[in-house]
Amino acid sequence: MAESAPGTSENKRVVVATAGHVDHGKTSLIRALTGTDTDRLPEEKRRGISIELGFAELDAAGVSFIDVPGHERLVHTMIAGAGGADALLLVVAADDGVMPQTREHLAVGSVLGLRRVIVALSKADLVDAETLQLAESEVRETVAEFGMQLVDVVPTSIAGRRGLAELERLLRALPADVPNRPASTRVWLSVDRVFSLRGIGTVVTGTLTRGHLHEGDAIFVARERGLLESACRSLEVHGRRVTKVSAPARVAINLARLPLEAVHRGDVVTRDAELPISRRLDVSMRWLPGAAPADARPIHAVVHFGTQRAQARVSRLSEETAHVVLERPLPCEGGIGVVLRGVASRRDFGRVLGGGRVLDAVAPPPPRRRDPRAAELRTGALRSLAAGDVANGLLGLVRYRAPRPIAGADLERRLGLEPGRVASIFGEARFQSQVVLLVDRHSFTTPDGIAALVEAAVAWLTRFHVESPNDLGAPIETLRAALGRGAGREAAEFAITRALESGRVRSLAAGLICLPEFGARAGESHDQAVERVREVLAAAALEGVSEAEIADRSRLPLDRARAALAGLAKTDQARRLAGLWFSGRELIHLRDAVRTHLLSHSTMSVPAFKQLFGVSRKQAIPLLEELDRQGITRRQGDDRVLGPAKANEGIHR
Questions:
Q1: Cβ-contact 355, 292 below 8 angstroms
Q2: Which CATH superfamily is domain 279-436 in?
Q3: Residue environment code for 484-510, b if the CB has 16+ CB neighbours within 10 A, otherwise e
């Protein structure tokens, strides 16, 4: 990277991709316009064709060129270059006219949404006026066939520079004619070149298609295997050092702390530490004539987006949308252009089948055929997103996922929306009061989804009471886990709270939950069980008693005895020490007796404790340790002395 003085890149720029059949003169035309030879590789010089992407700039015009190969075997490279462009410069030789790669490049541009096309009829000096007119008519018809906006057709010839001034005028007008890209806090740069410079380090280049970068920014390089942390050590735009650059622009980034072998073509530069690395995408689709699958069965295709490509299975969801399953996970986000091409196993090998934009970069699997409502919700949501109706698209995705909530930040990443956009949309009164329910202030589901979970909770408890009639109630955590398996813990917690608030279910002591009608019957039974257990503990005194012994002496099922003990423990009426349960009242009496004894005797040994309170070592040790924890006593050698508890202070005064 050059050591030029830092500047900024604030003026509006556009990126223009060349297009056209091999040997129609794209590279020569760019060299004549800019003075830059975009064929930099020795093999390109030897063979006289472009093999890799080349880059140039129209001086002081804010126009960057991506010169793409025209050979049929290098269409994948052409797609990588066209993905971030604003317009096409279509070069058609007047003596050949429209050729196969001319049409293929137009197909790529059309499915990527490139609407503006400037046509240069090259080699115009080699044909007569009639042939030139026929070539112009043919190219106009072909551009119209692909639904693209033809800015103009300019006959050109490098010899004598025929038409170059007019072509340059049209190109210089593009920055004013092309609509501004929306400002974005997200960053997307798909890497097309990686190299290392001595004394500088690893450099990547690509087209910045979203957001802006500043020198010194913390950034991440997203790869198939995850994200690597880095920083913009320096930035260049066409060899000029800049401190800031905004999309769209051709950018070179000197990456901090990353070796050359860590970064590859197809990786993505982002500022999002959680950019999705995904295998499933939902995309808007425009199928080229004759290329759409005949039915809903998936087809195999090569999927291109950014400078990446991977084999995939593609299933039609509707006329306008498709579900893509990649053979390997790749970094992606909503809004990225997609191109589909035929694979070797198909008759249309290499042919452009169609393309569009990523709608959902982390798409769930399509719903089962036996769930037509889910399929309708999913398809409707994607249609809305494809049509630009983000609000109803979001609503559809939330309804499709309900009752499981979706985090707003996850939706924004998946759909490529600006941070905070989801909360802003769902904060509108029409959603807030009628359709979308805010869960925990970050995630969204629907009132219907929560209502369904409440009904599921009631049904689950009904079954529980039938199957376990002797239990006072079900552990609330067990119910929460049962509901959470289908809806997630957050929604399950929210639904249980709603059920309790509405009176559909009732909370009992010891973390139990039941139906109100069962609770009314069980309440008296529970009180009786608690009283029986209290009597057993009182009778045991400082001898203590195990859970099994409590159940046996109280003639209660073990679960009922445990529930009663839990309730007593919550109010300090019972305490478990080393596997034995003691009455809380007896422990208070013990504390007072020990304090009184130590005030008159200063120390107390374990044998003295055993003799004084009529207990064995089995009870003495846990009881003394409990007194130590409370600060009533303090261990001194093998004896106990008065401890530091505040309850002891008043006795000395």
A1: no
A2: Translation factors (2.40.30.10)
A3: beebbebbbbbbbebbbeeebbbebbb
Q: What is the pLDDT of residues 117-126, one digit of tens each?
A: 999 999 999 9
pTM of structure: 0.77
CA 353 to chain centre: 28
Please name the fold of domain 446-571: Arc Repressor Mutant, subunit A (1.10.10)
Task: Record the tokens describing residue 185, joined without a space.
Answer: 């806090």
Half-sphere exposure of 72 (CA within 13 A, CB side): 8
CA-CA-CA-CA dihedral for 216, 54, 157, 97, to nearest 10: -120
Question: Distances in Å between the alpha carbon of 420 and those of 277, 335, 423, 425, 441?
Answer: 21, 17, 5, 9, 12
E strands in 238-316: 240-246, 249-255, 268-270, 277-284, 286-287, 299-305, 308-316
CATH topology for the 7-177 domain: Rossmann fold (3.40.50)
Neighbouring-strand partners of residue 193: 205
Joined together, the tokens standing for residue 263 give 């970064």
Q: For residue 512, what are the β-bridge partners?
A: 475, 508
Residue whose token pair is 């989801």: 422
- Residue 633 β-bridge partners: 642
Res. 269: pLDDT tops 90 = yes
